[in-house]
Design goal:
The chain is 55% helix and 20% strand. With 142 residues, the chain is of the alpha+beta class. One of its GO terms (biological process) is chemotaxis.
C-alpha cells in the first residue's frame, strides 16, 4: 500500500478511529431519539383528534342513545380526512349502535367493544393514516 511502514500504521489507526466514531455516533443517535412505540403526548392527541357531533339514535331494544365521540388519528392529515368523512363516520357509528341493546352499552366492556369496532371500520375507509383510538365522551341511554 504505502511504502513507509509508519504511514501504514497511522492510516490503520485513523481508519479505526473513524469507524469507532461513526459507530458511537449512530448508537447515540439511535438511543437519543424517541422510540417509535412511545405514547403520544396530550398535545399530540388533541392536535390529531376530531370530535363527532352529538349523535342520537335508536338501539335494538327500543331505547335510544345520545352519544359523542373523540376520534384520535395518527397524524394531522388523517384528522383532516376524518373531518371530511364525518358523514361516513356517523354512518358507521349509527349502524353499530342499531345492532346493540342498551344492556350491551351499559357496561365498560360493551363501550370498549363499540369503540374498537368503530375504530376498525373507520380504518377500513381511511386512505391517509389510521385511527389510533375512539373515545366515548358522552353517553346517555334512555
Amino acid at each position: 500500500m504505502f511504502q513507509n511502514k509508519m504511514m501504514n500504521t497511522m492510516f490503520v489507526i485513523i481508519l479505526t478511529m473513524t469507524l469507532v466514531g461513526v459507530v458511537v455516533w449512530m448508537l447515540l443517535h439511535h438511543f437519543s431519539t424517541s422510540e417509535a412505540g412511545a405514547e403520544p403526548t396530550i398535545d399530540e392527541i388533541i392536535e390529531n383528534s376530531w370530535q363527532t357531533e352529538e349523535i342520537t339514535t335508536n338501539l335494538a331494544d327500543n331505547h335510544y342513545l345520545r352519544a359523542q365521540f373523540q376520534i384520535h388519528a395518527d397524524s394531522k392529515k388523517a384528522r383532516e380526512e376524518l373531518e371530511k368523512r364525518d358523514f361516513q363516520v356517523n354512518n358507521i357509528i349509527i349502524h353499530q349502535l342499531a345492532n346493540m341493546s342498551s344492556s350491551d352499552i351499559d357496561s365498560e366492556e360493551g363501550i370498549q367493544e363499540l369503540e374498537t369496532t368503530v375504530r376498525s371500520q373507520i380504518n377500513e375507509t381511511m386512505q391517509t393514516g389510521d385511527v389510533i383510538r375512539v373515545y366515548t365522551t358522552k353517553r346517555i341511554i334512555q
